[in-house]
TrEMBL record:
Signal peptide annotation: none
SUPFAM superfamilies in the cross-refs: PX domain
One Pfam family linked to the record: Vps5
Residue ranges occupied by any PX domain in the UniProt entry: 23-140
PANTHER family: VACUOLAR PROTEIN SORTING-ASSOCIATED PROTEIN 17
Name this polypeptide is given: Vacuolar protein sorting-associated protein 17
C-alpha cells in the first residue's frame, strides 16, 4: 500500500527556515532540530543552535538534548511571561495510539517550525530562559517565575461593537471576533472530518467484502476468461480499499493536525486579547484612584482644620497612586502596541500555514485519485483486449 509522503523530511530539508514573517533577512539565533532518539524511555529531541547574541557563552551549540516535557516548561513560561507576544504553537507529542511513525514525522516538522519561529521572534529570542534552555547541561527547569495569565469573568468583557462598521471597530476587537469564529469553524470542521473518515472506513470495509465475494465467485466459475476478469475486478476493489485507507489517514494526519493546532492557538490568543482588556480596566481604575486622592487633597486644603500628618499621608498616598498609574499605563501601552504588530504577523503566519497545508493535501489527494483512475483504466484495457 502506498504511503503518504507528507512529513517525510530529510535533515537537510528540516534545516531550512520555515516562514517567520518578521521583517528581517537574517536572525541572530538559529535553532535546528537534527534528530529524535526513540531508544530511551522518553523521546529525546536533539537540537543545534547558532547565535550572534552577546549574552550567550558560545556561538555554536551542537549537542542540545531535550525531552518534550522540557519544551512544555519553556513554552508555558514564555506564554505567561509575555502577554504582549504571541508565542508560536508548540505541537502536541506524537500520538502512540495511531500510526506512531507518521505522527512522529509530523511532530518533528511542526517542532522545527516552532523552533524557527521562536528563534526569529525579536523579543522572545532575547529571553534568559530560552538561553538557559539552550545552554544548560542538565534537565531544563525555568528559574524565573511568571504569573499565569488569569482572566476575571466579572471584570473582563470583550467590547460589543457589532453595530459599528468594520472600518470603525478597533482591529483587536475585530480580531477577537474573528478568532471566536475561527475556533468554532475549525471545531465544526473537525467533527465533519471525523464523519468523513468514518464513512471512508466503512467504504473501505465494503470494498474488501466485495473483493472477497468476487474472489469466491471467480474460484467457482468454470469459464476461464470470466473467472480471470472476476479475480481482476476483486483485485481492483481491494487496491481501491487500500488507497481509500491512505486518503483517510492522510486527511486525519494533515488536516486534523492543522485544525487542532489552530483551535488551541485561537483560544490562547483570545486569552491574550481579553487580558489586554483586563489590563486596560486596571489602568482606568488606577486613574480614578489617583483622581480621588487628588480631590481629597483639594478638600483638605479647603478645610479650616488641617493636620500636618494627614496632609503628609495624603500626599504620600497620591504619589503612590501616581506611580501605580504610571506603571499600569506603561504596561497597557506595551501590551496594546505590541499585540497589534503581533496580530499582523499571526495573520500572515496563519495564511501561510493553511495554504501550505491545503496545497500539500490537495496534491496528495490528486495523486491518490490518479492511482485509482490508472487502476480502472488498466482493467478496462485488459477487458477490451
Amino acid at each position: 500500500m502506498p504511503e503518504p509522503v507528507v512529513g517525510r523530511v530529510t535533515e537537510t530539508e528540516m534545516s531550512k527556515q520555515p516562514a517567520t514573517f518578521y521583517k528581517q533577512e537574517d536572525t541572530p539565533l538559529t535553532l535546528t532540530l537534527t534528530s529524535i532518539d526513540k531508544a530511551k524511555r522518553e523521546l529525546v529531541y536533539r537540537i543545534k543552535a547558532q547565535t550572534d547574541l552577546t549574552q550567550y557563552k558560545k556561538r555554536n551549540y551542537d549537542t542540545i538534548e531535550r525531552t518534550y516535557a522540557e519544551f512544555e516548561r519553556l513554552h508555558n513560561y514564555l506564554v505567561n511571561a509575555y502577554p504582549e507576544c504571541i508565542v508560536p504553537i508548540l505541537p502536541r507529542q506524537p500520538d502512540e495510539s495511531t500510526n506512531f511513525d507518521k505522527s512522529l514525522r509530523l511532530s518533528k516538522n511542526s517542532l522545527q517550525i516552532f523552533l524557527s519561529r521562536l528563534a526569529a521572534h525579536p523579543i522572545l529570542r532575547q529571553d534568559s530562559e530560552l538561553q538557559s534552555f539552550i545552554e544548560s547541561d542538565f534537565v531544563y527547569t525555568p528559574t524565573s517565575r511568571a504569573n499565569p495569565i488569569k482572566i476575571s469573568r466579572f471584570r473582563t468583557k470583550a467590547k460589543d461593537t457589532g453595530s459599528l462598521s468594520d472600518d470603525k471597530r478597533d482591529p483587536l476587537d475585530r480580531e477577537y471576533s474573528a478568532l471566536v469564529a475561527l475556533e468554532n469553524n475549525l471545531q465544526n470542521s473537525s467533527k465533519i472530518l471525523t464523519r468523513i473518515s468514518r464513512a471512508r472506513k466503512n467504504l473501505s470495509g465494503s470494498e474488501v467484502e466485495v473483493a472477497d465475494k468476487l474472489s469466491l465467485f471467480a474460484a467457482s466459475e468454470v469459464n476461464s476468461p470470466l473467472s480471470k476478469s472476476l479475480r481482476r475486478l476483486g483485485e481492483c476493489f481491494l487496491k481501491c480499499s487500500e488507497l481509500n485507507g491512505v486518503q483517510t489517514d492522510h486527511k486525519n494526519t494533515i488536516l486534523g493536525y492543522l485544525f487542532d493546532n489552530y483551535i488551541r492557538n485561537a483560544k490562547y490568543i483570545q486569552l491574550l486579547l481579553l487580558n489586554r482588556i483586563n489590563v486596560k480596566a486596571d489602568y482606568d481604575t488606577s486613574v480614578k484612584t489617583s483622581e480621588k486622592r487628588r480631590q481629597a487633597i483639594i478638600v483638605m486644603k479647603a478645610s479650616a482644620n488641617i493636620k500636618a500628618e494627614k496632609v503628609n499621608q495624603a500626599v504620600e498616598d497620591l504619589e503612590e497612586a501616581k506611580q501605580f498609574e504610571t506603571y499600569k499605563r506603561a504596561l497597557h501601552n506595551k501590551i496594546d502596541k505590541n499585540l497589534r504588530s503581533e496580530i499582523e504577523v499571526y495573520e500572515e503566519t496563519k495564511s501561510y500555514d493553511f495554504l501550505s497545508c491545503f496545497n500539500t493535501y490537495a496534491r496528495k489527494q490528486l495523486d491518490l485519485e490518479r492511482q485509482k483512475i490508472q487502476l480502472w483504466e488498466k482493467m478496462l484495457n485488459e477487458l477490451i483486449q
